[in-house]
Amino acid sequence: MARQTAPAVADKISDTAKIIQKKILKKQKPTMSTPVRSLSNVAYHANKGYFQMKGKNKIRTLTVSTVKTFAQTLKMMSLSKELIETDDMATKREAYYISKNWGKAGFSEQPESDTIMDDVEAMFGVNREQLKFVPEEKGGDIAGRLMVIDRDSQGKRLKIDCTKFGSGAYSIPSDVEGLEFSSKAKFILAIETAGMFQRLVKYNYWDINNCILISMGGVPTRACRRFIRRLSDELKIPVYAFVDGDPYGYFNIYRTLKVGSGNAAHLNEFFCVPKARFLGVTPQDVIDYKLPTHPLKEVDIKRAKDALKNDPFVKHHKPWQAAINQMLKMGVRVEQQAFAKHGLDFVVKNYMPEKLKNNGKFLP
Amino acid sequence: MARQTAPAVADKISDTAKIIQKKILKKQKPTMSTPVRSLSNVAYHANKGYFQMKGKNKIRTLTVSTVKTFAQTLKMMSLSKELIETDDMATKREAYYISKNWGKAGFSEQPESDTIMDDVEAMFGVNREQLKFVPEEKGGDIAGRLMVIDRDSQGKRLKIDCTKFGSGAYSIPSDVEGLEFSSKAKFILAIETAGMFQRLVKYNYWDINNCILISMGGVPTRACRRFIRRLSDELKIPVYAFVDGDPYGYFNIYRTLKVGSGNAAHLNEFFCVPKARFLGVTPQDVIDYKLPTHPLKEVDIKRAKDALKNDPFVKHHKPWQAAINQMLKMGVRVEQQAFAKHGLDFVVKNYMPEKLKNNGKFLP
User: Fold this and answer.
1) In terms of Cα–Cα distance, which of B211, B227, B225, B230 is closest to B254?
2) Which of B1, B292, B314, B355 could link B125 by a cystine bridge, Cβ 3.0 to 4.6 Å?
3) What is the mean pLDDT of residues B100-128?
4) Residue B97 falls in the annotated catalytic set
């Protein structure tokens, strides 16, 4: 399953539709096949680097009871083809409202249209953005040694220099497929909180250390993950993640960034960053840097124990198991801004340089 | 209460501290006075254009039981003075962690330090950013005919041209006080959802209509509100709000943007945009444009009835009372992307031009 050009995706849609049409004209029952989208259909291969589908499919046959879903799927495919051919796009919400003009095939609630969209995405083995359906939310700010090449509405090339935004930043668009990059940075630092991102921008961190700073603002959006992945592939420089030292930071943010998630396994291939490494904050950092902490909450403990037991990524990596067990034993979590206890510049002058000197020891 | 320069704020902090010191040296009990921060201490003056404090103060006297809070307030003032003098800043969370080095004056939880910070802010009649405390979250994306002038870390002027971001955007920094602007735009459009912002960027709306597009991404952050306010003051062009047609859009987003909120009345003066007008979506638009809707939820109805009864802004403006009553009678809410039912370009080709032709009829 490789990246496909827009005309190739449009052709695939046509081909699938034609097969269905032929069957109908022959008075046979047409079928559609989509991969099962759940954790039970997922495996982790460390060499591939992401959660991958095992191959279970669900087959939908046109019958009296499936006729509406069948029609909706075909209409959604048709909308996608139209968007590709007119170089337009639609948000998930817009797609839902467009369906209000599909007569009886209209959706009554947006979750229904979202599900069909996910099915179409998995069916064609492409990501939603290639079908020209874009996420509602944006997310991800950039500062540092990166030149992004985009196009204006007349198709003219625009060079966006991410060193020239002062205290502000470049905000990643919702569809990053068409962007090009150029950079001589030495590494990419993906940061959980906007607060820490600001701190590093304020202290000119990217300039002094020749890197690219990315503010994920919590769990990274699809666009943000895809953006980092494309940088990782094309610039061939390391990606380091700097997040809070708690189960949410370890699994919901870092694990999702690196290998993807279970319920969207059909798109992990495009949206994960297998080469990401974990810079911090680790439980050991709490000891080494005498950081102020908070006690683990019930939900933290539950999430950590679940991960040890059920998360294929954690089960594969012994160093992660050790780190999680250490955290559970210490009974505390730590925020990435806790370094401020030692002075606002401590993170820049002490922690980051000391960590980067030993980057071979980062958690996988 | 006017905008103050950084040295003026630092001097004010010194003066207050000296008065307290003198009293202590004379073995008298020092006091500190901060305005009461609640809806009961707020009035709406349409000519001033924002929720304003009525002037109730709480006086804190140094006693055995207040000694810790007293010390924390002085330490917080001292931290602010230091940040001003070193041209640094601290996020709310960083300020909390810095206190971990204040010995017995350290805070045990961040809400405690946030409260003291709010008190200091109100005490000096300045906004937190002037004290060099910046919000954790960023927020607000810009595209269109605006040049933002910021400075790099060496103090060199940087011109950021918001027409040159292609499908991306300029992300507003958390502290916008130091920015300068230049623009020949005709109006500013503040948009609730990132999805609608993308739609207008995709269709090149700002170029064709010579305007500035701002994505608020839900309830606008402090930085976003302050940014729009400064544009409104300095460019002297209209600000139009385009939000979902529901009580959340009307009150939590639009009302907060225009006149501020009750529990932060000490800073509404700086953070509201009194000249903002309401473009849509109105209940009448639902009828005029045959828009698909959703039934009002319980919480919507409650919020609307509360507003009619208790919101000083709504009680002042008859057209808003009429609009809310119309919404309650229709029993429906509408999302700003509902126009997609008539085609993705309907909002740009029909709705916006028709509305802007009659901008005298916008809700206040």
Assistant:
1) B225
2) B1
3) 89
4) yes
Q: Are A171 and B175 inside 8 Å of each other by CB? A: no
B257 exposed, middle or buried (CB, 10 Å; 0-12, 13-18, 19+)? Answer: buried
Provide mean pLDDT across the span B93-119.
92
Residue of B nearest to A337 (CA): B94
Return the C-alpha torsion angle A182, A183, A188, A194, nearest 10.
-80
Q: Both tokens of residue B48?
A: 């001033």
B192, B334 Cβ separation under 8 angstroms: no
Percent of chain A topping pLDDT 90:
68
Interface test with B, best of A80, A82, A83, A97 (most B CBs within 10 A): A97
Who's near A125: CB < 8 A, 6+ residues apart?
A1, A266
Pairing state between β A211-215 and A187-191: parallel
Q: Please work out, in degrees rounded to the nearest 5, the angle formed at the alpha carbon of residue A179 by the alpha carbons of B192 and B224.
A: 25
The answer to whether the beta carbons of residues A241 and A254 sit under 8 Å apart is: yes
pLDDT at B241 over 60: yes
Single-letter amino acid, residue B209: N
Chain B CA closest to residue A147? B165
Give the minimum alpha-carbon distance from B164 to chain A in angstroms, rounded to a whole number.
7
DSSP-derived letter for residue B363 is B
Chain B: closest CA distance from residue A137 (Å) = 6
| Residue A228: both structure tokens together | 């980092």
Inter-CA distances, B288 with A15, B38, B196, B284, B352, Å: 41, 40, 20, 6, 13
Determine phi and psi for B49, rounding to 5 degrees: 95, 10
Count how many pairs of residues, chain A against chain B, have C-beta atoms within 8 Å: 171
Report helix, strand or coil for A160.
strand
Lowest-confidence pick of A261-265, B155-159, B299-303? A261-265
Report yes or no: B300 and B246 within 8 Å, Cβ to Cβ.
Answer: yes
Angle between helices A110-124 and A6-25 (to 10 degrees): 100
Give the pLDDT score at B168: 94
Asked whether B285 and B245 are in contact (CB, 8 A), the reply is yes
| The amino acid at A127 | N
Q: Of A80, A134, A138, A160, which to mutate for an interface test with B (greatest number of B Cβ within 10 Å)?
A: A138
Amino acid at A214: I
Residues 6 or more apart in contact with residue A31 via CB below 8 angstroms = A59, A60, A61, A62
Distance CA A103, CA B249 (A): 29
Q: What is the DSSP string of A265-295?
A: GGGHHHH--TTEEEEE--HHHHHHTT---EE
pLDDT tens digit string along A22-50? 999 999 999 988 887 766 677 777 777 77
Q: Which residues contact B268 (CB under 8 A, 6 or more apart)?
A: B50, B51, B52, B259, B260, B261
Chain A residue with CA closest to B92: the answer is A195
Q: Alpha-carbon distance B34 to B60, whole Å?
A: 8
- In terms of phi and psi (left: phi > 0; alpha: psi -120 to 50; beta: otherwise), the region of B343 is left
Task: State ipTM.
Answer: 0.86
Residue A240: partners with Cβ closer than 8 Å, 6 or more residues away: A187, A188, A189, A190, A276, A277, A278, A279, A359, A362
Q: What is the CA radius of gyration of chain B?
A: 23
* Residue indicated by tokens 């291969």: A45
Tell me, what amino acid is at A311?
D
Do residue B198 and residue A88 have CB atoms under 8 angstroms apart? no
What are the φ/ψ torsions at residue A203 (nearest 5 degrees)?
A: -90, 15
Tokens of A33: 């096949």
CB contact under 8 A, A194 and B148: no
- pLDDT for A49 equals 77
Residue A4 has pLDDT above 70, yes or no: no
Q: Phi, psi at residue A44, to the nearest 5°? A: -110, 120
